[in-house]
Amino acid sequence: MTKMRKSGNPVLRGRTRMAVKREDYLDWADYFMAVAFLSAQRSKDPRTQVGACIVNDENKIVGIGYNGMPRGCSDEALPWQRKNDDWLETKIPYVCHAEMNAVMNKNCASVKGCTIYVALFPCNECTKVIMQSGIKEVVYMSDTKHDKPSMVASRRLLDAVGIPYRQHIPKQSKVTIDFGALEDELDSTSTR
């Protein structure tokens, strides 16, 4: 329970509250990339999980997506393998990428002028969606397929229209979500 001391400083369970902010909080870029990574955890793809987070100029999230089958398709009805002699028996013609899903899942009229945070550098098809939707900047974490033709085409498209892209360099090496620890902390400080 919070009480007030005669000096006016709030007391919480016998301790004076600090008037200094935490120093280890996430900056905006790490936060948005972490949201993209958390979103990727929803992907059913057994090999590649990618998430995307679209943010407006007020640092508000306006769209989130992850790679998965199109809406209405069962996750068991279509193939998940990447390679097969029969292209139709691969995931490639079916899976919607995280960037497309983030744009389609937007919670505002337009994502024009927004920034997209994405775990992997976008392929050429996603880059076209990014361009057509008016997104102004691409921030990616990994570019492991840098020399693949679809990635070369992506950079060529982005360069042609002047959309900047940059690799995210995190300020914190990891973000941990421990639901149990959070619950314990809330229980010990609750005033309810």
TrEMBL record:
Gene3D superfamilies: Cytidine Deaminase, domain 2
Class in the EC hierarchy, top level: hydrolase
Sequence intervals crossing the membrane: none
Source organism, top-level taxon: Eukaryota
Source organism: Strongylocentrotus purpuratus
EC number: 3.5.4.12
One biological process term in Gene Ontology: dTMP biosynthetic process
Protein family (similarity comment): Belongs to the cytidine and deoxycytidylate deaminase family.
A cellular-component GO term for this protein: cytoplasm
Chain positions recorded as Zn(2+) binding sites: 97, 123, 126
Molecular function (Gene Ontology), one example: zinc ion binding
Protein name: dCMP deaminase
Keyword Zinc attributed: yes
Keywords of the record: Hydrolase, Metal-binding, Nucleotide biosynthesis, Zinc
Domain named CMP/dCMP-type deaminase: residues: 27-165
Residues at the active site: 99
Cofactor entry: Zn(2+)
